[in-house]
Amino acid sequence: MQNFTFYAPTYFIFGKDEEKQAGKCVKRFGGTKVLLHYGSGSVVRSGLLDRVKTSLNEENIACVELGGVKPNPRSGLVYEGIELCRSQNVDFILAVGGGSAIDSAKAIAAGAVYSGDFWDFYQGKPVTKALPIGTILTIAAAGSEGSPDSVITNENGMFKRGASGEALRPAFSILNPALTQTLPAFQTACGITDIMAHLFERYFTNTTEVEVTDRMIEGLLLAMIHEAPRVIADPDNYQARANIMWAGMMAHNNSCGVGRGQDWASHDIEHELSAKYDCAHGAGLAVVFPAWMTYNLKHDVNRFAQLAVRAWGCQMDFSNPKVTAAAGISALKQFLKSIGMPLTFAELGAKAEDIEEMAHTACYGNGRTGTIGGFVPLGEKNVVNIYRLML
Amino acid sequence: MQNFTFYAPTYFIFGKDEEKQAGKCVKRFGGTKVLLHYGSGSVVRSGLLDRVKTSLNEENIACVELGGVKPNPRSGLVYEGIELCRSQNVDFILAVGGGSAIDSAKAIAAGAVYSGDFWDFYQGKPVTKALPIGTILTIAAAGSEGSPDSVITNENGMFKRGASGEALRPAFSILNPALTQTLPAFQTACGITDIMAHLFERYFTNTTEVEVTDRMIEGLLLAMIHEAPRVIADPDNYQARANIMWAGMMAHNNSCGVGRGQDWASHDIEHELSAKYDCAHGAGLAVVFPAWMTYNLKHDVNRFAQLAVRAWGCQMDFSNPKVTAAAGISALKQFLKSIGMPLTFAELGAKAEDIEEMAHTACYGNGRTGTIGGFVPLGEKNVVNIYRLML
Fold this sequence. Notes:
The structure is a homodimer. By secondary structure, chain A is of the alpha/beta class. Chain A has two domains: 11-179, 3-Layer(aba) Sandwich (Rossmann fold), CATH 3.40.50; 185-388, Dehydroquinate synthase-like, alpha domain. Helix content of chain A is 48%, strand content 12%. The first copy, chain A, contains 15 helices and nine strands. Chain A has helices at 22-28, 42-45, 48-58, 75-87, 99-112, 185-203, 211-233, 238-250, 265-277, 281-296, 301-312, 321-338, 345-348, 355-364, 380-388, and strands at 4-7, 11-14, 33-38, 62-66, 92-97, 133-137, 149-154, 159-164, 172-175. A six-stranded parallel β-sheet of chain A has the order 2-9-6-5-3-4, with helices on both faces. In chain A, helix 5 (99-112) links the parallel strand 5 (92-97) and strand 6. The first copy, chain A, is globular. The two termini of chain A are 38 Å apart. The interface between A and B is large, with 46 and 46 residues. Strand 2 of chain A pairs antiparallel with strand 1 (4-7) of chain B, so a sheet runs across the interface.
């Protein structure tokens, strides 16, 4: 295990109807004037936004609204939010929605107290200062409700990039699993895939003797494998939703990723897909991950076999662990298909002729220097080959 | 899953030599005058205390010392610490040691800013205010470095009781696994047992559909079962020590205990043993847990069988799950014996003639009202029978 620091001071309020605590939570963390940031009309139509506003009102917290966050959130709205925060003296940002609304809120929070261009943070500058953020989560997926990360797409070039920093951990996050019950099956499955992808990115490591985090990751994967078919079969299954929601937070707050190298090339490879085709991030990951695994299996056959045995219940082939390792990847593909996820470029609407360009951007775009991935460093040609496995 | 809140804002610094960060950490959290609280001479002899004092000095942090914390820490020293904090205007408490030093520091931190008797908190009053606490951990066991709990023995009646409250979460905790390498095998094994006991207390629940926390608990148990023999065979195994140390924190910060009923009768039953015979808490738990499990197996055979299969690798007897459940308890006993833990009253130095009195105190002492345990509520007679299983 490597030396590390871990600081996750988010206050979580979990359960039915807890969005009513929004006002009290903002007050607890010192907010007096809130930017209420959200996405599509669904939080309006469902009445959630009204309930949140009532709760803010009850605590005499003033409120400015900025809706319109899109999936794969864009830089344009971030600039708008930053201006709004400055002109209206906003001191707290409350995101209502999924990872997109939260990530956009984080970008605004960092940009509002920074004299330069907020995009600096998405080119590697660590975020050390930001307005405090609260979240009311409506999609279990991104884990942004408990993470110090944010991913934004820059409309100037359509680069999709991440920022990170302690200051981006939300002050509080309200997780009501019932709010996710109205999600369409496809979006639910995308969220499940994203959560599992966050675990895979941490699982594939060259750091040895990390049994405790290995076992925690495997445990969370097993819970997801158990709950996913239950929630796909019955979208109103509150308990399955609740388990998935907590797993989504735990998968990405890094308590199971500490002290070990991580990979993250699959996210980089996927970000090109969702930046180019505006596909759902989770759907993109479903296409990318089996291909990435197949391509990199030879790098550490035993680690892939371990995952196959412990998470997918494959029988270990002791005379040929590669067989077991490959069986794990097949099991993942079968699982993803069973919950309605795509597995190919065609299903995603992606095009073979864009592969070279995407591989180049993934490795060199927006200041990158040629390789991605911590487990297996991949160059442009490797990335081309991985994209080709998705055809 | 039940509704819950979760707030664990401790800043963790994990790894070799990190105790050198002590001064910077105290400064980060606003401390200017520290009560340095520790136990036996080992932290003095090893030079650890000097390194910590040097680090405080470098940041111009003033320092008052209070050593002498004993295992099963006592109320007398807590009163002394509270007086010292008040007379010396201490604004930060830094514990150097294991759970005893940390729990004692927490009691002082709560008492120093409270006008009444600190023992009120150990009779059920929640701790909402306390001086900030930092810890430098030297024993992986109690999990107090990341928990909101503290256990103190009141010398007036020798009651061993717990207090809890958000204000008791340490502001920071420094975890250097190398500091635990000098621990004798017996103390190491006691720590391992305590960590596993914290997981068992959460695992045995009547709350249904808690797959995510079940799987996390099982994952942490599997890691402990893997690492325990490695560290007993080779006390200098840094990596095994590191895995155990992080598992110890995760086992008790409650991220795997949220949203579910928990039991904790075994801890209550053990506290009578360590209060009366001053035995090591972990050793007491090794004697109590198999007996508690055997007595309560019938309450939920499938849950015991699930633990046996998932943590101990027992084969499921589908025609008679009770056989599997019992095999899990046997596996636990064998494991505890293999790491040098006692399994009987005699090995602990406990006496059969004290059983009635201990059972009475466990159920009625210090304000209790007759039953203990959340999974299976136990009355005095049940507790007598459980103690008898330890003979």
